[in-house]
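Quarterly update, task 2.4: iron/sulfur cluster-bound model.
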Amino acid sequence: MEVLLARENGFCFGVKKAVELTEAATETGRSVHNLGQVVHNPKISERLAARGVKVISDPSEAKDGIIVIRAHGIPPETRAKIEAQGMECIDATCSLVLRAQRFTKQLADEGYTVIILGTREHPEVVGLLGFAPNAKVVETKEEWDRLPKMKRAGVVSQSTQPPWAFTALVAHVAEISQELKVFNTVCPVTVKRQHAATELSERTDTIIVVGGKNSANTRELVNLARMQGRTAYHIESAAELEPAWLAGKERVGLIGGCSTPMETLLEVKERAEALS
Ligand code: SF4
């Protein structure tokens, strides 16, 4: 059986930076706190925990040392809390998330009704809401069909949302608003990853997607493969691979989310080849 690795794999630049900054902080010998899981990947969380990094959910839980802000970013009030505590802070917010935060604030300041395509509880969306507390968050067609008519609407997206959903939402809001301003904040790295998943789907009917169960961009790859009529399995590590998934297959596709380390993918590849 052949295991086809997707053309795009490994960490995206935002995740790479967040992990490297956290690891560099541990070299200082001071206590290091990640405000939320630095990236949605259990292996990376374990690696950082082994270096003594603590995950906290609120800045007040850190009494000394360094706080690292993760790639998803934080709302401005949380940043103000860190500053008020006088703690050293390393900001690993991805530059693309900072860009989305800037546009969200701009739309709110200019008086637009802000519409965010995303998952309300996702930390990146929680961060965006900090810049536009009255924004409406929608994720499905059923949700955006319930939006009221608006005079001035402004649309942004959580970085990992699929581009087709963003296009469909914008087309809908154009019909229910008198004036529309759009900032396309879908991450081009995740779009490339989705294209790579589509390429795999053209070559095989079974795709193994590796990444954190809470990783939005990983889940999007699974959805995409299923929407294309393929069988997709979502696993976090090689140990979860089931021999039955591979039985009788000539080839299977393998792709990881933007927070899945290359070494985890290679472990899955090795185990899949051994099982076949
Ligand atoms: S997926 Fe895109 S927006 Fe998110 S951290 Fe990676 S590069 Fe940044």
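Highlight for this quarter: Residues 17 and 69 are 11 Å apart (CA to CA).
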